[in-house]
Batch of 3 targets.
Target 1
Amino acid sequence: MEPRILLVEGQRKKNLSCGPWLEERGHKFDRVHTRRNASAWLKSTTADLLIIDARALRFDAHRFCQALRANGENVPLLLILPAGEKHSGDSATVVLQGKITPRRFYNRVRRLLSKPGAKVLRAGEIVLDIEQRVVTRGQQQHRLTPRQTALLAVFMRNPGRVLTRARLMREVWDTDFVDDTRTLEVHVHWLRKAIEKDPSHPVYLVTVRRLGYRFDVPPAEPQ
C-alpha cells in the first residue's frame, strides 16, 4: 500500500518546493496551503507522514503542530523551519532547518516512513503485526487477510474516533462507493471474532449507529 503523505506549504515557486523531491523518489502526495485544508485532510485520511514546510506559510506552524498532538494526532511529522527560527522540538518528530538538500530531506522522509514500530501497533491487550498480518490478544493469536489487516490498522491508529463507513471504504478499499457496505460489515465481523472476548458484545470495535464504527481501548481486565 502506497504511503499517504500530506505536504503543507505556502504557495511558492516550484523550485522552492519539496514536492519535486518527493516526486523524484516516486512518492505520491497531496498538497495543501492552509491550516483549514490541512485539518480537513487529516480528518478524512489516515496519514503515514505529514510534512509541514513553514518557510512560506501564512499561519503559525508551531501552534498547528501543538494542536495536532493535543488532539491525539500521532502521525510522523517532519517540520521544516526557516534558518534561525527557534523551535521547542516537542511536537514535530523531526525538524529540518538551514540549508536543505534533496538527500538530507529524503533521508528524513525515508526514516520516518520506515521507522521501527510503524509495522507493529499496540492498543490495550491487542498487538497487530502489520507485516506478518497477525493479531494477538493475550494468549490468542489470529492470522488476518490483507484487507482485515489494513482495516484493523486504520482502527488502531484512530482510537476513540468515530470512523464513518465512507471513510473506511475509501481508506481500505480505495472507493467512494458506499451504497453497499456489506463487505465492510463482514470484515468487521471477522475482526471481532479475532480480537473480542465476546464478539456479540464487543468492547473494542463498537458500532456507532447511523455513522460507522469506533475503536475503544477498555481498561485492563483484572487477573
Note: The domain at 5-113 is CATH 3.40.50.2300 (Rossmann fold).
Target 2
Amino acid sequence: MTSDAGALLGACHFPPAGTAVDLAVSGGPDSVGLLLLGVDAGLAVTVHHVDHHLRETSGLDAGFVEALGAQFGVDVVVHDVRVAPGANLEARARAQRRAVLPPGAMTGHTMDDLAETVLLNLLRGAGVDGLSPMVNDPTKPLRDVRRRDLHAMVADRGITARYDETNDSPAFWRNRVRHELLPLAGAIAERDVVPIIARQAELVYDERHWLDELAHDERGLDEVDCRELRDWPRARLRRWLRARLRDAEDHPPSAAEVERAIRVVVGDAAAAELAGGRRLSRHHQFLRLG
C-alpha cells in the first residue's frame, strides 16, 4: 500500500497540466482523493457537488465540499436534485446526477470500482461491453489507482472525508459485492483478485473493439436485406443491431432487446417491442423501426 501522491499521480490518467476539468466531488474519500490529485496535477479544477437530499446529513456534505474548495482555491458548484423514494433508488439517483453534471465530468472511480462493476454487470447478464467498463474512459482518471491507497493519501493530508452510511447497507448489490463477494473470491483464489479482474476488463475491451471493426457497416436498418443478415455470424449481427438500435439518448439496447431483434431478422417473430415505446418489424425482408 502507498499513500505517496507522486506514485498515485503516475497511475492517473489526467490531461496535461493547465487543462480545465470538472470534478464530481461527493465529499467521500474517493472523490476527495480525486480533488487532491487533480490539484497536484496542476489542472484548472471546478468542483461539482450533487446534493440528492436522500440523507439528513447531505447538507453537511455540501458544506464540507465548499470548505475544501475554499481551502484549495477552486470553484465549487452545488447542484440540488430531488429523488423520490421508491424502487431503483440508486439507479434513479445516478441518472439525476448524470443529468446535472457537465459533460465529461470526472469521477473518483478506482480500480476497485471497476472490478465491482464487472462483477455486478456479470450478475446482471451483461455482454462484452458490460465486462469492460471504465477502460480507456477519460472521465475515470483513477481507474488504475487502488481505493486503499487513495484513502491513505487523503488521511495523510490530514483530511477526514465525509462518510456515507448507505455504503454499508446490504440493500444495494454493490455493497454486497464489495464487502462479501470480492473478499470471498480473494479467499478462494488466495490472492488479490481486483487487479486480475481489471486486467480481464482491459482484454475484453480490446476484443470488443475488434468485434466492432468486424461488425462495422454504415447501412441502416432499412438498407440491408434480412436474408443477408441471417448469413452473418451471430456476433457480428448482434454488434450491428446494438449500434443501430441505440435510443434517442444514445443508450444501447439491452441484451434481451437485441435477442428479440434477432428473432425478427431470422423470421421467428414478426416484430419486437423495444425500450422507449419503439417497435422493430420486418417488411419485405427489410427492417423498420417505429
Note: Residues 5-110+145-168 form a domain with the Rossmann fold fold (CATH 3.40.50.620).
Target 3
Amino acid sequence: MFSRLHAEYKAIDLPDRANFSPQQMQTASDQFLDQMRRRHSVRDFSNRAVSREVIENCVRVAGTAPSGANHQPWHFVAISDPDFKREIRLASELEERRFYSGGAGDEWLKALEPIGTNDQKPHLEIAPWLIVVFAQRWGHYDDGTRFKNYYVPESVGIATGFLLAALHHAGLVALTHTPNPMKFLNKMLDRPESEKPAMIIATGHPADDAKVPAVAKMKKPLDEILTVAS
C-alpha cells in the first residue's frame, strides 16, 4: 500500500464539510446520543442470518478510523462458517476455564460477578458472525521492506469503536470477547506473525428472550466523565 521511495506530503482541499447550524449540530448530537444509548452488549443471540454485505459495510466504517501516521494497523477476519465458529468457541472456552478456575485472581472474578459471565461461550457458535480484530505491529512497503506501525493499540481501539457503532447503527447487537491468550487465532485463521489478535466480536440479532445484566445500564453521569477546563 505504501511506497518507500515516493512518500511525500501532498495537500488537497477538504473533500467533505457538514457546515451545520448550531441548532442542526445540537439536533444531530441529541439523535446520535439517543441511538447509542440503545446499544447493548448482548450474550443471547438468534441464529437469524445477517448478510455478508452488511458486515462488509460495517468493516468499511471501521476502516475510516484515524490511525498513527495513517498506517491503518488493523485487519478484520469475518467468520460465518459453523465449523470455524465451533473451533473458536472450543479454543476460547479452554482459555476461559483456566481464567475462571483461578487464573484471573479473586479481585477480577469478584468484579465480573454482576455481569454474570462464566467459562461457557455459546454465543461464539450461535451468533451468525464472528469478527476477529487483529492489530498489525508492523507492515511492509510496496517493495517488501518492513516498516513499524505507530500507536497501534490506540488506532485499533478507535477502529473497533467505529465498528461497534456501525453494527449498532445497522440494527445488530454485538459482544466483545477477549480470551487470554488468543494466539490460537493466528494459526486458526492463517494470519501472519506481524498481527496480534485483539478481540473477538460476536454479532447478529438478539434472541427473542435476550437478557442483559442490570448493572450494564448503570453508566457514569457526565460530571464523572467530563471536566471542562475554562
Note: The radius of gyration is 20 Å.
